[in-house]
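Retro notes, item 3 of 5
We never archived the inputs for the iron/sulfur cluster complex last cycle. Fixing that now. Sequence and ligand:
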Amino acid sequence: MSNKPRVAFFDFACCEGCQLTVLSIGEPLIEVLKHVDIVTWREAMSEKSDEFDIAFIEGSITRDSDVPRLKRIREKARLVVALGSCAALGGPHVSANRFETSELLELAYGNKAEQYEAGEVRPISAEIEVDVPIYGCPINASEFVLVLKHLLLGRPYRVPNEAVCYECKLNGYECVFDKGMICLGPVTRCGCNAICTSRGHRCFGCRGLVDDPNVDAARDVLEEHDYSLDEIIGMFQIYSHRAPRVQQLAEAAAEPQKKRSKGSEPWRFGSTT
Ligand code: SF4
Ligand code: SF4
Ligand code: SF4
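Structure as it came back at the time:
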């Protein structure tokens, strides 16, 4: 029997786009996969096993009935990686938390709504311990390979914690604020090499907030371009499951500079994902 680390992939509520990203990596993935045994991957193979060392978990938790399965995976795995922003943050469907679940079920399924189970959308870290989060919707393929290499070498992976603006500026991309768009780059975690702004699009914050967002700087930029609180809150609420805290951030970001008391400490959002 091979003594390579056994790797398994699992999914919960999501579009499976992050697993597809992994599948499409090609040569760099094939190289690193020589050092592991893939034992379970529903999207790629029919074999499966209950014995694994590293679990990549994609998708968020939306049903209480999924929690026991998630906990079983955690019990079996030595290391758990949250694969993508659904697993790490809640994902785009976290916006469902702003509405009554029963109303949403009725909208989607009409008089069959009672046959379906749904609840608060949350990241897997709300239920189990996560060793490494890989952010992004979808993930950055290079980061996946990097994380896997770190795990195989037994080295800690430093999750990027600078703002997207940092990578955007390093690459010399034109700021999309100057083209009339709102960009969440000033407070969003980098690691994607500013892929959206490289193509002239704004950052939607798919990698979540940095741990200590520079709200003052974000607010200055927003004020300078005269954006409304509603526009900002709408954008902040796309990815993070911590809607109240995101709202708090958005309100602080939108608060006119002149309303701040003189000499007050810069507003800090604190640790968040
Ligand atoms: S993070 Fe985005 S791409 Fe990945 S599974 Fe979720 S919705 Fe799909
Ligand atoms: S605000 Fe957006 S476009 Fe402008 S520098 Fe930051 S990441 Fe780039
Ligand atoms: S630029 Fe923003 S929205 Fe685009 S991939 Fe990076 S973090 Fe996500």
